[in-house]
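Justification of resources, computational component.

The compute hours requested in this renewal are based largely on the per-chain cost of generating structure records like the one below. Each record pairs the submitted sequence with a full structure-token output. That output is archived, and it is also reused by downstream analysis tasks.
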Amino acid sequence: MAEVGNGVHGPGTVYLNGEFVPYSEAKVPAEDRGYLFGDGIYEVVRFYAGQPFGWEEHMDRWERSAAGIRLELPWRREDLLQIARELQRRNGLESAPLADFYLQATRGAAPRSHAFPAGVRPSLFALLREGQAHPEAERQEGVAVITVPDERWGRCDLKTLNLLPNVLAKQRAKDAGAYEALLVRSGGYVSEGSSSNVFAIIHGAVVTPPLQNILPGITRLTVLNIARRLRLPVYERPLTVGEILRAESAFLTGTTTEILPIRTLDGEAVGEGRRSPVLDQLQKEFAQVTGAGGGDTLCRTERI
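The structure output for this chain reads:
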């Protein structure tokens, strides 16, 4: 990893608007709309042993997010994958066990005005850095989680740059010595985490909140597919804080979170501190799915 002058660690080379440049030299205009308004989208794809997992699903979501904010994307999926491959080569990550590809598009730079600017090309930024696996103790014993009110805007299903409420929730978790904050809506219903989806194992069934203004996580989709292949009961329905506490197990999912058990919720043990055998099955199957190499399209999960 290269270290730049401000002490921030980044990859040696990144991509910015048609050029591969050193991390320390990647500059965007002061009036880029992503900086001024959060007017943009992003995506994160994890590479396992050099291969992207769920590439097509991530691109589906990328394009859906763009359509949701009326952002016309001039780049094809194959263009973006070629950028990722070149970043792998330039940063020596072709066969890294874990690498995370971050992709961000904004509406571009223009004099500050709320309405969309005319004739402006969107800006594209991408980086690939070595991924970090969760410690085995966390994967087995779980992490502490707190609850906070869900105070976000009304299009949480889009993966946009408007993440300040998520940032504040995550900071509240950090201040409390916890890993994640679950966002709670009216009636005590959990929507998702600040940067993750949430599941509970209840009477042997896999339960997760429905896709009603929450992010359609790719790992969430993968877990649902795995559960159905294992012939486990699966329910996408509202899930309360109380149900999570009483569940046999509960866990978080996300591209870099993968499957991470919840040990405590607001200081109380989930499932009396026991692990459900169903959780063991899901973690084992997920590791097998993501560890299977064999090309860029092999990791595409089946549709629900």
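The chain has eight helices and 18 strands. The chain has a mean pLDDT of 92.
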